[in-house]
């Protein structure tokens, strides 16, 4: 029956099916990535490394033509890949037909794919330095595309989604602490350091640095009451950071355990 279906399939449909199996990790019966996706993953890492290196003028000055040529080659390769994914998406029942293709093009991974290649074409002839730097920075989204090949990203998403209520509560607690601590330090220090603590919004920067236990030291209390309160704030900040960290660690551990159990059940079957 399968042989009869393949004989009836047009060359376009057969090629699309083959393309889908090469590009879509979930379409493979064997574990791991296809050779095509492995090559794409290597190109993504290479493109990210070049994007980072070319921001250093000294490095870029060593071989300007190399960076230009490499970017052209990589951009064209990713453009071909993007078009191939749009074509291959038709194998998925959700994305068949013109409406389905459009639906695929606005899916999260497809949008990331598009944003990763657009800067190359948008920066051609660009003269605004800030816009040029911003668009080049967007190219780092290519690194996020590796998530399509990783089960860990799916596990992380499941972990965050499963603990969204606990994380929301911890976020609300963090916001409340920021407001309270910045308000108190404003009362204690405003008259002594109006430039740093002259208003609650100004004091908010100190609260963020202290509660996150970063402690840049650019703004510090000078009164005894302010310094005592700063010490208490730093101690509270340890707990504020530990709360969402513990929630995420437990959720991620549960997700990984569930995946291991599924793998063991699959092997037993």
TrEMBL record:
GO terms for biological process: action potential. InterPro entries: Ion_trans_dom, K_chnl_volt-dep_KCNQ, VG_K_chnl, Volt_channel_dom_sf. It is found in: Membrane. It is a multi-pass membrane protein. Residues 35-258 form the Ion transport domain. It comes from the Bacteria. Keywords: Ion channel, Ion transport, Membrane, Potassium, Potassium channel, Potassium transport, Transmembrane, Transmembrane helix, Transport, Voltage-gated channel. One of its GO terms (molecular function) is voltage-gated potassium channel activity. The chain crosses the membrane at residues 35-53, 65-88, 108-135, 167-188, 228-252. GO terms for cellular component: voltage-gated potassium channel complex. PANTHER family: POTASSIUM VOLTAGE-GATED CHANNEL PROTEIN SHAB, VOLTAGE-GATED POTASSIUM CHANNEL. This is Potassium channel family protein. It comes from Billgrantia kenyensis.
